[in-house]
Design goal:
It is built from 2 helices and no strands. The chain is mostly helical. Helix 1 runs antiparallel to helix 2.
């Protein structure tokens, strides 16, 4: 399983936990950050493979 896919899964899980637990808003921000980083890495790898 690619590393970026694992990061996306972790990001989604943290987002769900962050929304479900209103006291733990930190998880929401961590989930968003991980999703953004994983999407950027995925786009960079896709661009590098097509060149």
């Amino acid at each position: 399983m690619p590393a970026w896919l694992i990061l996306i899964i972790i990001g989604v899980v943290l987002l769900v936990l962050g929304v479900a637990i209103s006291a733990a808003k930190f998880l929401l921000y961590v989930g968003i950050a991980i999703l953004v980083v994983s999407l950027i890495l995925g786009l960079l790898r896709r661009g590098k493979n097509s060149v």
